[in-house]
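Why this split exists: single-chain examples teach little about how molecules sit against one another. For that reason, every record in the complexes split bundles all components of an assembly together and asks for one structure covering all of them. Below is a record exactly as it appears in the raw files.
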Amino acid sequence: MAAVPWAQWLRVRRGLCLLLTGRRAGLCGRAPSSRFYSGSAAVPEVEGAGATGTEEVVIPKKKTWDKVAVLQALASTVHRDATAAPYAFQDDPYLIPTSSMESHSFLLAKKSGENAAKFIINSYPKYFQKDIAEPHIPCFMPEYFEPQIEDISEAALQERIKLRKVKASVDMFDQLLQAGTTISLETTNSLLDLLCYYGNQEPSTNYNFQQREQAEELEEATEGSNEKPKKKAGHQLGVTWRAKNNAERIFALMPEKNAHSYCTMIRGMVKHRAPMQALNLYTELLNNRLRADVHTFNSLIEATAFVANEKLEEKWNNILDLLKQMVAQNVKPNLQTFNTILKCLRRFHAIGKLPALQTLREMKAIGIEPSLATYHYIIQLFYQHENPSKGSSLIIYDIMNELMGKKFSPKDPDDDMFFQSAMRVCSSLRDLELAYQVHDLLNTGDNRKFIGPDHRRNFYYSKFFGLLCLMEQIDVTLKWYKDLIPSVFFPHSQTLIDLLQALDVANRLELIPQIWKDSKEYGHTFRRDLKEEILMLMARDRHPPELQVAFADCAADIKSTYESQDARQTAPSWLASSLNHIAVLFLRAGRTQEAWKMLGLFRKHNKIPGNELLNEFMDSAKASGSPAQAIEIVKLAGAFSLPICESLTQRLMADFTLSQEQKEALGDLTALTSDSDTDSSSDSDVGEGK
Amino acid sequence: MAAARLSASLVLQPRARTLRAFSTSVSPATRSPRPSPSTTERTSRYGRPLRRKALPPRTEKMAVDQDWPSVYPVAAPFKPSAVPLPVRMGYPVKRGVPMAKEGNLELLKIPNFLHLTPVAIKRHCEALKDFCTEWPAALDSDEKCRKHFPIEIDTAGYVSAGPSVRNPKARVVTLRVKLSSLNLDDHAKKKLIKLVGDRYCKSTDVLTIKTDRCPLKRQNYDYAMYLLTVLYHESWKTEEWEKTKTEADMEEYVWKDSSSEKNILETLLQIKAAEKNLELSKEELLGTEEVEEYRKSVVSLKNEGDNENTLSQYKESVKRLLNLT
């Protein structure tokens, strides 16, 4: 059995400050070479006192450490509490979020409160001048967003650029030109930087969490659906580079341009999706015999991949050309270069595999350490089409072998997508050992930072837990369940259904009421498929009496949730199968009153009771010895015109002693049912019924 | 826009729910058209949202052998849902019991040390051992410590929650030293004691200098050491005006040249004169044993105060001196 790697150091959610764990290398007490002797707080001797002992008192040198080392050492003594919600939430049963949407909205509410406070402070800075923080904390003081310099000068232009006011700085630039002053090359370059970065639009104030998330969503949507190449989808989002906008105009107006200006323009064009223009500008750069820097080359590689209507081999050749030019211009590639190449190769699907491996080898040959994003792209490339029948590549095993025990630091914006894709591959390969390896990597050092935002973490853990339910022994799975849910992620109903099926396989159905109770806590009270699965599993077989009682309680609970849901919605949510199961469970536990009430519900919601159910009712009626109930059943069957009505009637006649009027009522009933029979003719029916 | 984005990103059942409006960017046009029911906010048919139900406290899920320092890693207020003990606190009404822990303000007011259980302290000590250096092997007893390091410095640091790390109380420095470890002769010691006044404790022979007049702890420490140095050197010097030390300035009673000596001499001379015995001179008189004893008893009486012993000693010596026994 695989050893259970406990999920330690599981960090808090959603982009909050982290408790750094482990002891830093700043604690330099060990190596004698790095000890710093400080004037020891040990006591100096008074002159004349004379420490003339027979032994010599050797005072060791004092150790020094950085400011947070003690806190980190103390933090290493505590672990994650598996029952607690993340620390950002108030630890009160009323205030803990019960679903991932709630937790998202709580955190957003907190953040929006902070933003509102910042807004107020920055709007009325004169009321917030008192500073009691010692030493001074600059981010607590109000910031000044309005430009102070009012006259038309280059300093004013620089100030506006620093404050990121796009329109104001362009206006100031025009005014300066009209006034005839020459503007230095650096200032113009910094103005071009500003314009190209923001794409000639003002930076929006709610830039922080809205737009970037949207960009990620659609990016994932495009990655996810691979069948139809969605090259154009998602491009409506964000800013596009319009021709003859301010940046180009200013660029044209510049009397002299240096390499920096060209580079900025190229990078701006590529960022805002104008690849052809970027490539044209690059040829112009070469014509002017200037050199581009490494960031520009990275953008150009991206541009060549974006160009439409070209075959993939041509694109790859173009990229290779660019690389050769890079070598010719003596520009050293960096990590971003290789990551960009791999990102572009992803779009090449199958033929990108070999170049990807070549790129990786080249990267290692140069000595650049690959980051997690690199491996993410490779995984995406090799495992794009999840089709196990074709045979999957084994590259994931090589990757994991290489990554074991390594600690990473953030180097690329896409670093946080690695774990999600790795777990996705593990899940599709159904390999639990590999999943444990990936999880171990996540828990090494500070790698927990790379789990990404909420939805990515949820995806990772859903897949992980799904794999555990499928492949791992039930005890271990239950331990993971207690550990992960709900303190790490809120499960989907599909995850819980997987867990229930695992319990079913391992024959541990007695835990079902506990699972139901837990799932009510995190918002699954009204998930129909989950409730049906639970009811089905409980009602399938007969169980020992105590268990039956527990199941009946659970069923009553589920019934009450159905009813409260009914009270709110006009469309009824009952299914015939759920009604069946609930009734059966009541009967088996001996709660016959409620079971009989269920029959009324059948009629009310117009659902048809199953055959076994009716038989069981008949059994219970026989056990309680009341023919009236038996007649009820037959009437019900007749009302629904069920074919079983015949056998029920016969059974009724055989098992029960009926009074005369009951027999007559029964006779009418059977007459009615046989009237409605489509097979026989009406005349013979009438004759038979009597 | 916000609600739609969230429902796209998170895999949800079709009942997406509205977010409560937050201040930044939700525009009215993009809110979903009707408020849909959520699990915890139950809306009745009449549109009034019912109360959100609280979860069961998480003490129910805690295992008996859980890691308690992880539940309370730092000083935190008492959380009844996180502490699995059935504590009660409060004054009971007549024929009642003290109040339970849920919603109990008394339990919140008092400081709790749930984060410092013995297990936690042991772990902290283990973790902090790496920051410590070894104790010098030669200093294995208190006397040796005092011998090698006679001066003791006391300082205090303060932490509090707040944006400022400064605390004006942290600048106080107290220096303690035993005068027996300083190289002082009799005169120097007496002069030093006179100079420091209250700061010397006679019973423990400890000089305590407490400085807080400088703004920084470092400066106060330097000032305290400076004071000690100055006192030492000054007490060794003898000034001109010290010769004019009168009896009123003496710290302890000295019998020589005192009024008691004069008195007893006069008395004895008168006795001897009455007995017509004028041979003995002053020095011989003073040298006799009875006078010695008398001197001792008077000195002890004056220095130590009145008690049984000294008084009886005085009585005996006077009787012997005056030949009364």
